[in-house]
Amino acid sequence: VQLQASGGGLVQAGDSLRLSCAASGRTFSNLAMGWFRQAPGKEREFAAAINWGGGSTYYEDSVKGRFTISRDNAKNTVYLQMNSLKPEDTAVYCCTAAPSILLIRRGAGNYWGKGTLVTVSS
């Protein structure tokens, strides 16, 4: 599976941004998907995950209520809608895929894409 994230950019605090991750090479609808982020000088951290059908989602505490993960299996794409962005959300965001959402949450995704940079200015 090849994953390609896009949609990053420079925004101001309080703005919104939507990231997309397009998948190819395998049946997308069978895979759980997730987003991780890595801020400068910090470890990569889990942000959000969604199961294959879209019925179950999980979020890291600091993004709950602000970020929404969704997917469109017909388009082989997963999204991360980010609202009320804060400077501490600045990071490279990458998407990952795995047969199980538990693997996603553990950071053990089978597939990883290159990230897209989100910069939030104060």
Description:
With 122 residues, the protein is mainly β. The protein is built from one helix and eleven strands; from the N terminus they run E-E-E-E-E-E-E-E-E-H-E-E. The strands form two sheets. Strands 2, 4, 5, 6, 9, 10 and 11 form a seven-stranded mixed sheet that branches. A four-stranded antiparallel sheet has the order 1-3-8-7, with no helix packed on it. The protein is globular, with a radius of gyration of 13 Å. It starts with a strand and ends with a strand.
Task: Give the gist of this structure.
This protein is mainly beta and 122 residues long. The protein has one helix and eleven strands.
Name the descriptors.
seven-stranded mixed β-sheet, mainly beta, 50% strand, four-stranded antiparallel β-sheet, globular, single chain, 1 helix, 122 residues
* Helix percentage: under 10%
User: Per the principal axes of the C-alpha atoms, what is the gross shape?
Assistant: globular
Instruction: Report Rg.
Output: 13 Å
Q: Runs with pLDDT <50, length 5+?
A: none
SS summary, helix count: 1
Strand count: 11
Mean pLDDT: 95
Strand-pairing-aware structural class: mainly beta
Q: What is the makeup of the main sheet?
A: 7 strands, mixed
